Amino acid sequence: MAHGTVKWFNNAKGFGFIRPEDGGEDIFAHYSTIQMDGYRTLKAGQDVNYELNAGPKGHHAASITPSEIDDIE
């Protein structure tokens, strides 16, 4: 499982990007892969764990788990 920090996330569009902890290109993040109950969203600066998958347009995150779920409102 990889670790990173949310660079930005657009709630209206349901996607954003994660900055990997070990550097490299930003990783695409879609709301449907966020593992939490209720409204699935991420906040800029939030630490997350995720699985890394290769897609047709580059890498994307799967099974995104916020490190601090209690910080989500």
TrEMBL record:
Main localisation, per the record? cytoplasm
MF (Gene Ontology):
DNA binding
Cytoplasm keyword on record: yes
Q: Which GO terms describe its cellular component?
A: cytosol
Entry keywords, A to Z:
Cytoplasm, DNA-binding
Ranges where the CSD domain occurs: 1-66
Q: Which organism is it from?
A: Thalassotalea piscium
Tagged with keyword Transmembrane helix: no
Q: Where's it found, cell-wise?
A: Cytoplasm
GO process terms (BP): regulation of DNA-templated transcription
Protein name, entry field = Cold shock-like protein CspD
Q: What is the lineage of its organism?
A: Bacteria, Pseudomonadati, Pseudomonadota, Gammaproteobacteria, Alteromonadales
**Which NCBIfam families does the record associate with it?**
cspD
